Amino acid sequence: MPSTYEPIATTTLSSAASSVTFSSISGSYTDLVLVANTATNTSSNYYLIQFNSDTGSNYSSTHLRGTGSAASSTRYSNETSIFTSIGSTISTTKLASIMTAHIMNYSNTTTYKTIVSRDNNAGTEVDTTVALWRSTAAITSIKISIGANNFDTDSTFTLYGIKAA
Amino acid sequence: MATTYEAIATVTVGSGGAANIEFTSIPGTYTDLSLLCTLRLTSGGIEAVDFTFNNDTGANYSWRYIQGSGSAVNSASGSAANAFTEAMVTNGSTSTASTFSNSCLYIPNYAGSNNKSFSLDTVEEENATAAYMRLEAGLWSNSAAITSIKIYGSANFAQYSTATLYGIKNS
Question: Does A71 touch chain B (CB under 8 A)?
Answer without folding.
Answer: yes
